[in-house]
Amino acid sequence: MTVTAVGRTDPAPVVPRGSAIPRDADPGPDPMNSVLGKVRPILEAFTAEDATLSLAELVRRTGVAKATVHRLAQELVVWGLLERSGCDYRLGLRLFEIGQRVHRQRILREVAQPYMEDLLLATQETIHFAIHDSLDVVYLEKIFPHRGLNEESRVAGRLPLYCTATGKAILAFSPASLFADVVRSGLKPFTRHTVTSPGRLRVQLERIRAEGIATEAEEIRLGYTSMAVPVFGGRASLVGALSITAPTYRMDPSGHAVALRAAASGISRSLR
Description:
InterPro entries: GAF-like_dom_sf, HTH_MetabolicPath_Reg, Tscrpt_reg_IclR_C, Tscrpt_reg_IclR_N, WH-like_DNA-bd_sf, WH_DNA-bd_sf. By secondary structure, the protein is an alpha+beta fold.
């Protein structure tokens, strides 16, 4: 029998090379037990609609212990990632500063913006530039006239690939595995016009590949239609999609398509 001194921890047993790891071996640390694993849900608890959140609401949304949320929130305030607003918290300016340094997205926005402004002048409708992330599109830039669409979408906002014009344009020119992932996750309806049939969506994507332009008719918001084209960069790599959104009655399919293709071509040339 081996006697172990009190307060001493025996070293972990060494597993010979090539040996199987025991079934009861430690699978590794739980991400939620790390500091970053707890900080992430605190920051992600804020939605676009939240100006501020109370400590109690942060605890409710994160599921992290109140004492831990309070301690980490105080540290985030010191770092500038959160700010105090009375007794509540809000996202800090430091997050905005760091976000503006993301190289790829910053370059895409800077290149796309002049062409988006030209497109806005030509159409007087809302213009979006979006990229693909997971099963969504993320809007890098949005510009609109006084009468334009100022709801549903926002810069840094997300919407699904399958029911947005920019998303359909990206999906049509992406690997088939992405389509399979989108279908597997489910096609939730936003309006009565949202395409929720995988077969219908596949047919749409085939047409988009043939014509080079995507259309979404009132799938996200009743009364509004969008048209989008893919944007390619160096080595013909897909980098995002450019779109026009307008009230359905005001959408000019032929005229808007010409302006949209010209702007997307300009962005692609600049990126190359």
